[in-house]
Design a protein that fits this description.
The chain is of the alpha/beta class and 431 residues long. Helices cover 58% and strands 10% of the residues. Helix 6 links the parallel strand 2 (130-135) and strand 3 (157-158). The structure holds guanosine-5'-diphosphate and magnesium ion.
Amino acid sequence: MESLKESLMGVVSRIRSSVLLDSREVDLVIRELQRALLKADVDVGLVLSVSERIKKRFFEEEQPPGFSKKEVLVKILYEELVNLLGGEETPELKVSSTPFKVMFVGLEGSGKTTTVAKVANYYKRKGYRVGVVAADTYRPGAYEQLRSLAEKVGVPFYGDPQERDAVSLALRGVKVLSDKGIQMILIDTAGRHKDEEALMEEVKTLYREVKPDAVVLVVDATQGSAVARQARAFQEAMPFGYVIVAKMDGSAKGGGALSAVASSKARVIFIGTGEKIEDLEEFNPKKFVARLLGMPDLEALLQRFSEFARLEKERARAIASGKITLLDLKEQLEGLRKMGPLSKIAEMMGLQVKVSEEDLNIDKWINIMNSMTMEELLNPEIIDSSRMRRIARGSGVSPRDVKQLLEAYRNMKKVMRQLSRSRMRGLPRGF
Ligand SMILES: Nc1nc2c(ncn2[C@@H]2O[C@H](COP(=O)(O)OP(=O)(O)O)[C@@H](O)[C@H]2O)c(=O)[nH]1
Ligand SMILES: [Mg+2]
């Protein structure tokens, strides 16, 4: 994955060095992203749809106050890559019944037998009693390979080098191990047969007879987007919910394999990152993409976005409940400001009023409110004297000015309340 990481870091630094992020610069960013994904063997169709979505979102979504265009683009890039590689949820293989039978399927050489040992090790470390069954009766040496791996992990093993019938062997294995009180039984199966049809036939029969609680497909990351075809073939034979992508270490095509799996219904639960039994990592798309982008400050940025979303929700609630906030006052005043000085407005209305002092007040108030946090604008009640001093310092006025603004806000609230009350009494609108 190192090469994908390198090229995605290039995409991020292109965003950072952009000046305007106009459509020409965004196109350059997108093109660089496309190159990076195609090099990682991500399917062309997926590359195109992800680039379209990023562009569309960037030009359509509102830029929230306090965030730069670059930050917005980085966030969209992050979210769309998370989506491409598996989305929000991190599924888990839960041992929900005893014995919990897990059947491993996948083509020969994908890393299945090694992965069975890795998963056994993982759950053993979590405190489960795990056992493994060698039901690959086709490949010579499969028995010995799993037997020695099980010994290394230190878990019970069932196999029979003389048995040719995978189904009866698996059934016996399940019986023997569950009699021993094993909670989780991992069944390794063949990945090759006389031909693909015979292999799928055996896998189907195993599924029907053994009735596993979960099926895990193991695919090889070095195959890139080609794993999509394997996934489809196995999906036709039986429903599998989980995928493990082995050999992610050193594979330049890992991104292609992950996105191919993500576009099917199955979820990647682990990735294999080496030949040793410890080389298994839980797969979490969010963490994975964060690592790929190589931005130490990404976490903080995402947190700011989610904080903003939280406050937006709070604001929507305030509006729904009819609560008037300082933010409303601020927006009213800013709207007024856009129309020009008050004296000008008065002039347009044919009035001869001298309001220049009011103009100064409006500017001062907007300035003060610019020094407040969103939290304070939405809940002015929380502004105590120490917050008042901080706001005054931030806007270069005296705390008395801040106090005056808060008083004006309270008066406005009172008037609004009275207005709505008199309206409820049936007075004509406007009273
Ligand atoms: N580098 C690397 N090699 C792996 C990984 N998983 C499996 N292998 C190697 O891939 C080869 C095939 O693995 P095996 O478990 O026998 O595959 P099977 O035929 O699907 O059972 C072996 O040489 C393994 O050591 C992995 O995550 N990283
Ligand atoms: Mg094997």
